[in-house]
Request: fold
Amino acid sequence: MKADYKEHDAILIARCMLQIKAKFDTDKGLNFIQQYYIKQGLKKFGDDGKDAVDKELKQMLLRDCFTPKFVKDMTASERKKAQSAMMLLVEKQFEKTIKGRLVFGGDGTCEWLSREDTASPTALQEATTTTCVIDAHKGRDVMMLDMPNAFIQTYTPDAKEGEDQIYMKITVMMVQILIDMAPEYCEYVVLENGKREIYVRVLRAVYGMLQLSLLFYNQFQSDLEAKGFVFNLYDPCVANKVVNENRKLSDFMLKIICQVTWIRK
Reply:
C-alpha cells in the first residue's frame, strides 16, 4: 500500500533517518537536534547561548562577511530584495556545547532567482564509481579531504551593470549585539516599523543563500584551474592534473567534499 506524506511529515522522517545514520545514541530513545531562534535560544541556554551568538558574529566580522550600507545609497529594488538575517542556536548532542549560526533568509529570494542562478553541478554516480574502481584496481592511495568553513570562504561577485547587489538586514536583538562588537555600525541603524535594523552588503556566501552552492562551485573551479587542473568535458565535477608524469585525479561531489587520488609508481 502506497503511503502519502505531507511535506512537514517527510522532512521529519528524513531528519530521523539522517540522525539514525549518524549513530545518535538510541539507548534511551532518539535524540533530535532542536534549533532555536535567537530570542528563544537565549532564554533556554542563557549565558552559553549569548557566548555562541557573540562567537558567530565575531567570526563574521573577522572574515569580512558583510559591510554596512546607508539606506540612502541603496536602490528601492535592493531594499525590497534585502533578506533578514536569522541567528539559530542549537545544542550539540555529544559535546554538549551551544552553536550559533547566522543564516540568510534565502526562501524570500525564490521570486527572482531562477534554477540556473542557484543549481550547482554534482558529480555523476558513474564518474565516482569509475574512479573508485580504477583506484582499487591500481592499488592507489586515496585521501578524503573536508574543507572547513568552505562556504564562508566564498566571495559573492560584484553585481553587473543594471543588477542589484546582495543585501541582508540585521534585525531585532542582533542589532545591539553587533553595535557592542563594532561601534561603527551604530551610524547605519535605521528605524522600520518601529524596529531598529542595519542593512549590510553581503561580501561572502552566507548559509541560507540559494545561490550558495553555485558560488562555491564557481570559486572552487577557478581555484583548481589556477593550480593547473583541467575539468572533464562530460562531468563538470571531475578535474585532472598531471604532476611529474603522474596523473592526479580530483573528483569532488556535494560541493564541499573533495576526493583526491595520487598514482604512485
